[in-house]
Design brief:
Number of strands: 12
Order of helices and strands: EEEEEHEEHEHEEEHE
Structural class: alpha/beta
Number of helices: 4
CATH topology of the largest domain: Rossmann fold
Shape: globular
Largest sheet: 6 strands, antiparallel
CATH architecture of the largest domain: 3-Layer(aba) Sandwich
Strand order of the largest sheet: 4-3-6-1-2-5
Length: 238
């Protein structure tokens, strides 16, 4: 993957800590006339370094209808250069980014059902799909499974509730792998619940994003149940 195209600059407009380890940056491009992206793509953040910047990839979580206002969601990694940099940022600072990159695009026209399967910050590109493709998805049933460890790790629920309130055919389900005793929702792993969508009875496209083990197990499950590779669109975070 080439990152030799010149970087663009974005100002940090807002910093939101969604959990103790997930940070949301709202960015405004300083010159957006030559920048556009498609939902599902990512940008490379330039982390200052010596002798050259360190590059890290982050999926865009905002709508591709407004490319000048980017939203990026970060998971804190102890000892990580990018995490240390991002958690020291202040409102008003200027970031260098390159992109967009990535070819996990939304396939149109969508089938009768579309299922998004996310773990942790793998939710980011799926938010972008939902915000960008609402019109295209009007005739489809849309389901999102969002997996995190515990209740304290849940984030972006206000975004998902707002989409659900405005969009009757959209449903989302949180799945906890290490829930507390009082949790009454879904427990386990996101792939454990895909049977609820009855995907073998309805033409369904799947979009997977998150940790590599989830991607692997979900792909294997779907393929065993007759879902072809043209119906599975995935991007793994390691």
């Amino acid at each position: 993957m080439s990152t030799r195209r010149p970087p663009f600059q974005a100002r940090v407009e807002q910093i939101l800590d969604l959990t103790s380890s997930v940070r949301d940056l709202r960015l405004n491009l300083l010159d957006s006339k030559d920048f556009s992206f498609r939902c599902g793509q990512f940008v490379m953040l330039h982390i200052p370094g010596d002798p050259k910047p360190v590059l890290r990839a982050y999926s865009v979580a905002s709508s591709d209808q407004d490319p000048g206002a980017l939203r990026l969601i970060f998971k804190f990694v102890p000892g990580g250069k990018a995490s240390e940099f991002i958690w020291k940022l202040h409102q008003g600072e200027i970031l260098n980014l390159t992109g967009p990159f990535g070819r996990v695009f939304f396939v149109e026209p969508p089938p009768d059902q579309v299922v998004f399967v996310s773990t942790s910050t793998g939710l980011a590109p799926h938010l972008s799909y939902l915000l960008s493709k609402k019109t295209a998805l009007q005739k489809s049933k849309v389901v999102l499974y969002f997996g995190v460890r515990s209740e304290s790790d849940i984030f972006c629920e206000k975004d998902l509730l707002a989409i659900q309130k405005d969009w009757p055919q959209f449903q989302y389900h949180v799945v906890l792998s290490r829930p507390d005793l009082h949790w009454t929702g879904r427990k386990g792993y996101v792939q454990d619940f895909l049977h609820e969508t009855h995907y073998q009875k309805h033409r369904t496209d799947f979009y997977l994003c998150g940790n590599g083990q989830m991607i692997k197990e979900t792909q294997e499950l779907l393929e065993r149940n007759g879902i072809g590779p043209d119906q599975i669109h995935s991007e793994a975070f390691y």
